[in-house]
Amino acid sequence: MTAASRPPLKADLLLLAVTLLAAAGWIFSKEALNGLPPLLFIGSRFLLAGLLLLPFAWPSLRKRRPAQFTGALGVGLVFAAAIAFWVLGLAYATHLGESAFINSLGILLVPVMARLLFGDRPPKATWIALPVAVVGLACLSLDRGFHLEASQWLFLIAATLFALLFNLNSRVVRSLPALPLTTIQLIVVGLVLTALSALTEPWPARLGGDTLAWLAASVLLASTLRFFLQVYAQGLTTPSHAAVIMILEAVWTALMAAVWFNETMSAWQLLGCGLIFAALLINRWRWVRALWRRR
Q1: Which of 20, 29, 58, 167 shows the smallest number of beta carbons within 10 Å?
Q2: What is the DSSP string of 21-70?
Q3: pTM metric for this prediction
């Protein structure tokens, strides 16, 4: 890799910050759920984040034709489904570190989904990584006597939907830049899930200061700032290079949960999470090796 073709260090550092913000978002969200029902929390979080990004995206949005928004709105509905399963899984989760590794399987499923939907050929590494990930998931279930909890099923569904979302976004972004696309999707998610919450969840009569603080942190840091930095950093590097760094989100989440919630892992959990992380590295081995050679 020549110096001219190397992704800039600035992109690496920004993406590293994105993974830390994303991991912190798990902590913020789990705390906020102590005072808010899941769908109301995630709906209001994304709606507020989308509205905060709207001024930055507005100059680009004004130049677009109405037909260009159709794909963004459709993908926004898929995003709403994915994040709904994620937040419900989070509400029931008893171990954030383990949950983050299960959710990260979505990265591994991206090329598989591309094969099923669009006929793309996944790299050979994907077919090696998949059985490793399945064994890792089995190890996590063995920790409870070969039984998957409700939260684990919810995260698996969310991971599958996130893989679908990634593939759809990669095609929609060809007609709509990343920032306005992200803004539209956040607002769609916020409107859909807040409305769904109004129909299905009891809303609290009042919100405590702690809940409002965790919600604000989720909106400003884990959503608005995170997505803004992610869009900017992805414009400085390649998608594959960015994906390698984004794998770190699960690691940071496990470490933060260990510090904040005093979480520990059994031998089976450590083995399962380790195998899932290894599967993610195998799946991205080509880019991991290239990243290593840069140093």
Answers
A1: 58
A2: HHHHHHHHHHHHTTTS-HHHHHHHHHHHHHHHHHHHHHHHHTTS-GGGHH
A3: 0.86
What DSSP letter does each residue of 193-235 carry, written as one string?
HHHHHHHHSPPPS---HHHHHHHHHHHIIIIIIHHHHHHHHHT
Measured torsion, CA atoms of residues 137, 240, 55, 22, in degrees rounded to the nearest 10: 30
CA distance 282 to 206: 48
Question: What's the mean pLDDT when you consider all of the chain?
Answer: 85
Largest distance between two CA atoms of the chain: 60
CA separation (Å) from 231 to 14, 83, 223, 237, 238?
Answer: 10, 19, 12, 11, 12
CA separation, residue 64 to residues 32, 68, 72, 103, 285 (Å): 36, 7, 12, 34, 38
The model's pLDDT over 100-114, given as tens digits with 9 standing for 90+, comes to 998 988 888 888 888
CA distance to 95, 199, 205, 294, per residue, from 263 (Å): 7, 35, 32, 35
Residue 76 region by backbone torsions, left for phi larger than 0, else alpha for psi between -120 and 50, else beta: alpha
The string of pLDDT tens digits covering residues 179-195 is 888 899 899 999 999 99
Burial (CB < 10 A; 0-12, 13-18, 19+), residue 6, is middle
Contacts 24+ apart (CB under 8 A), 116-121: 117/164, 117/167, 118/167
Q: What residues contact 53, with CB distance under 8 A and at least 6 apart?
A: 179, 182, 183, 186, 224, 227, 228
What is the Cα–Cα distance from 56 to 177, expressed in whole angstroms?
12
